[in-house]
Specification:
- Chain B: InterPro entries: AAA+_ATPase (IPR003593), ABC_carbohydrate_import_ATPase (IPR050107), ABC_transporter-like_ATP-bd (IPR003439), ABC_transporter-like_CS (IPR017871), P-loop_NTPase (IPR027417).
- Chain B: Belongs to the ABC transporter superfamily.
- Chain B: It holds the Pfam family ABC_tran.
- The complex is a heterodimer of chains A (355) and B (515).
- Chain A is mainly alpha-helical.
- Chain A has 13 helices and 2 strands.
- Chain A has one domain: Orthogonal Bundle (ABC transporter involved in vitamin B12 uptake, BtuC).
- A two-stranded antiparallel ribbon of chain A has the order 1-2.
- In chain A, helix 4 packs across helix 10 and helix 11 runs parallel beside helix 13.
- In chain A, 50% of the residues are buried.
- Chain B has 18 helices and 23 strands.
- In chain B, helix 14 runs parallel beside helix 15.
- Classes of the chains: A mainly alpha (355), B alpha/beta (515).
- At the A-B interface, helix 8 and helix 9 of A face helix 10, helix 11 and strand 18 of B.
Chain lengths: 355, 515
Amino acid sequence: MIRFIPRERTPVWLTVAVSVGAGLAALLLTAIPLALSGAPVLGAFVLMAKGAAGDGFALAETLTRATPLIFTGLAAAVAFRARLWNIGAEGQLYAGALATVALGAGLIEAPAYVLVPLVLIGAALAGAALLLVPVLFKTRFGADEVVVTLLMNFIVLLFVQMMLEGPMKDEMAMGWPQSAPVLDEATLPKLITGLRLHWGLVIAVIAALLLHVFITRTVWGFRIRAVGENARAARYAGLPVGTAMALVGLLSGGLAGLAGASEVAGLKGYLTADLSPGFGYAGIVVATLANLSPLGVIPSAIFIAGVFVGADSMSRAIGVSNYLADLVVALSLLSVLVGGLLTRFRIVLVRREAV
Amino acid sequence: MHPDPRPLVLSLAGITKRFGPLTANDHIDLDVRAGEIVALLGENGAGKTTLMSILFGHYVADEGVVHIAGADGQLAPLPGGSAEAALAAGIGMVHQHFALAENLTGFENIVLGTQSLWSLGLRRGAARAKLERLITESGLATDLDVPVARLSVGEQQRIEILKALYRDVRVLILDEPTAVLTPQEADSLAATVRTLARKGLAVIFISHKLHEVLALCERVVVLRGGAKVADQPTLGASRASLAELMVGRPIPARERPPANPGAPVLDLRGVSVGAPGQRDRLEGADLEVRAGEIVGIAGVSGNGQGALAQLVAGLASPRAGEALIAGVRASRADPAGRIAAGIGRIPEDRHRDGTIGALSVAENYVLETIAAPENQRAGLVRRSDIRRRAARAIADYDVRCPGPDAAVRALSGGNMQKVVLARVLERAPRLVLAHQPTRGLDIGATTDVHRRLIAARDRGAAVLLISEDLDELFALSDRIAVVHAGHLSAAMDTAGLDIRKVGLMMAGHAAEEAA
């Protein structure tokens, strides 16, 4: 018989081990469909690893892909800490991207040291404003934020498509539904010439460090943790529960908005309706795999990005569908949820007790 | 002593149960004879619950056997680990928290599970006749045909006992049966238990109210740290001797200097709280609590003391009337404002309202004061200062925990309450709200809470004590008011107050009738 005994404390190494183990377990489980499809399992994994980190070019590509995932992972981590179930990072990402194009594609002309911060702040505010609506609905009327944020994703995406077919459509784009490109002064510079890697990564890592300090060291971080762990007791203790929730909404939405700015101003240069292949949703996996730790989000995002980039490269080489990456990501989420049991309970095997 | 002529119905021999390194039951022997009322005493964690769970088949003992008399009176071993076998052998238990389906009638609750799932309809006739006979014999008069939700707590308990009797129990276990009853209801329960015992039922009575144990039971068994430390007739025992056996050391008698009240700190005039249709509400209450006195609020829970606590704690605002709390006119729900005004609040539910389980002892210690200058500088939490002061509070309040960084979730109820006390009392509040401050605590922790409340009073704080435990109210309060159905009586001096009068007022009699 298996007994679950609640743990009094969870050691940090165990939390890390569970996350790493979940990633490995997901990869191992993926071997089954790989084998069924007749592909050489070991060879496929070697190709994936090479594709993700085999050389400087591959590594740079993985880090480029990890950049938006760090932002959306942080957005999910800070919200979930406060038990605010923001499933709308995808929509907030597009809101940020829209703001980036609106501000950075010619509306304002200014030198880069003015325009880049302006574009980033604008994008963060757009994402924050978008999430503030469901948060206020939740605190004022008790509306379920999961439903509201999820549905708002579709509203925002359709709004983006409308703008790209209408007022924001680039007349020079041969009829393609895409926005005018952002000005050079609004562009995030490349980190290394010749590679796609850009300053968005540095900003994302700084955001993770700041968020870590904010949550663990500041009064408002303390309040957010208290509200997230037990809102009833926080209210009894006189903590400003509604304000803390609104602050979490602003932070989470703002971080997701920065993901959009980083993709447009750092990578693509203009906005299309297929800017994000689900970075907002993948951010939930990233945050969960990181056990909602802002610092953990960085390696977690790099792992998930590596799976995507590696699977792309592998599928080109041996013709296995790159949907395999989605499978690894989904299995990682499931594995880490199962692994979460290990962090909360000690699992003890006992013999069936005799009479 | 002459051998007892009554036949044995239950015999536990050498029962041992270990959970990892903890020995919850250590070679416990216990014999119970037909018609005997045996008290089982012990602090939280002494092993009472484990022993009863073994008897009931929820756990299997590591060592030892349970023998129970069959229909022929012969003792036979009871197979362990089977609740069905225990029920079939005639063991019945009435838990502190009733196991009744609230939307079914008493009759349906009693016959539920005794008839085959495949039988078409209830065989009402025979069941009814048997129940009528049981009610006549036991005196457990109650309405069997209304949904249980509409019955009072005392009536629900009678349904629970009838349920056990209907299944022909020979051993009845009552777990803290008087915890929720008024003194009058408790008396009526005691009379019923005596009647049943005279007819040959063996009763195991679990209670921490020692005066009840002394009045009702003929024998008392005391567990401490998993072992049986006493098995003696109640004749010749006293409350002090039993308490000492339970705790393992003498309990010093409580010294309580007379109150020296000053100016009113809490002043309610015609205050109503809660919507008129709500059960737990207050209607036009007048109450004054002065500095340096403890005013107790007696009443069966749900009669308005919850609304009063919410008002004082700042979770509710008055619908009508004037409430001056610590000199501030309380016109809106504002917990932070109440704290700032100098009100220390000990909530009824320390798990849900009093502490945040996932946060550390130190973090819970500063939960209400995190924005104060000693806890933060420029918005940054002063972590080492907080840890240092929390470590001192842990020592001062004798909180048993691994340290200031331990999660509060891992603490026992008593230690959790000490963290709340440290947080509330360290700031020397002008008014202390203590709502059920000792519920679920063992004698040691309870004594500690009482001592600290009296110390707060002597320091000059006004203390509002809300409790369902009349012994506690009479031991601590300088004055006592009774709340029933939203109406709060005038506060009466405890000196010379008759506990029976308070009991009648809790049941809804006016003070003049109750006198």
